[in-house]
Amino acid sequence: MASVRLYLDEDVRPLLAEILCDRGFDATSAARARRKGLTDEEQLLFAAKEQRALVTHNIRDFVELHASFSDRHAGIVLSNQEPVQVVLRRLLHFLSRETAASIQGRLFWLSGYEPPR
């Protein structure tokens, strides 16, 4: 089973990608990929080309893009603006439960991945 590869758009703090990489996950950010300033559609197409799930706080726009591109993306992970440690905890739980195949073309709400305490 292939692990999920992540692409954090410019709405998500690049620090999260660095922390995930330090923990052995394949994650990059718009800043690291030098993709800042592109349209949401361009960001999604780049993530799809790289076979990466796109992580964003831009919920409204990416819900709409999912409807148009659901068969052409590697997954979209939506998160409310939360402290870095909350988003990290949820992303780690998401990555422990999902595979690249299980998220292909699907939309996920990161709030649904709060690990049990």
Task: Give a structural overview.
The chain is of the alpha/beta class and 117 residues long. The protein has one domain. The chain is 41% helix and 14% strand. The protein has five helices and five strands. The protein has helices at 14-22, 40-49, 59-69, 84-97, 100-103, and strands at 6-8, 27-29, 53-56, 76-78, 107-109. The protein has a five-stranded parallel β-sheet, with helices on both faces. Helix 1 (14-22) packs across helix 4. It is globular and about 35 Å long. The model has no long low-confidence stretch (mean pLDDT 94).
Keywords:
5 strands, alpha/beta
Low-pLDDT sequence parts:
none
Quote the beta fraction: 5-15%
Structural category: alpha/beta
Shape: globular
Please summarize the sheet with the most strands: 5 strands, parallel
What do the pLDDT scores average to?
94
Number of helices: 5
Total number of distinct structural domains: 1
Number of strands: 5
The secondary-structure element order is EHEHEHEHHE
The residue fraction in helices comes out at 40-55%
**What is Rg?**
13 Å
For the largest beta sheet, what order do the strands appear in spatially? 2-1-3-4-5
Q: Terminal Cα separation, in Å?
A: 27 Å
